[in-house]
Amino acid sequence: MSNTGNSSKATSIHKAEFDPILKKYVYIGTALVLAVTIVGLIILPFWLILGKIYIDRYFNNLYCELTTRALHFKKGIWFQTERSIPLDKIQDLTFHEGPILRWLGLSKLMVETAGQSAQGTSDMSLTGIVNARKFREMVMDQRDNITDRGHYTTPSFDQKSSSLNELAPILTEIHKTLQSIDKKLDNS
Known about the structure:
The protein has 188 residues and is of the alpha+beta class.
């Protein structure tokens, strides 16, 4: 995407690459899950034969891009998932590295956004990104750039006093209304 003079268009900052070891992780993980279920035992021989073809196609369809305004992600072959999360909605990017992921040198980035549906869940999970920690920093830095989270300054005394001067008449009116309500409650 290129910016052609329209400031509302997002421009690409970084396209994430996925580590090829992710193929091994998905292949072995799926085989283990199939091996422990009754139905899976029937499917396991087909997976061992055709699984590598499926994994190659799946891996080739993985896409993740950081733009000036959002984080875009796409995955899947038969059931495709495509997500775009505006950077100003991202609260945090959390790392998850279990023993198998660490052994393979992989990590999982879980994107947490404002207003997510359930506690402890993430809106997007990115497994196997090359240089995941650097990618996380790039996303968080860009988020801070567009939301000014990294550049917060406290209001000066003059700004505070002018805000209070604007609020004084409203607060006085609220105070009078509360006194009136209080008197009416006392009389009843």
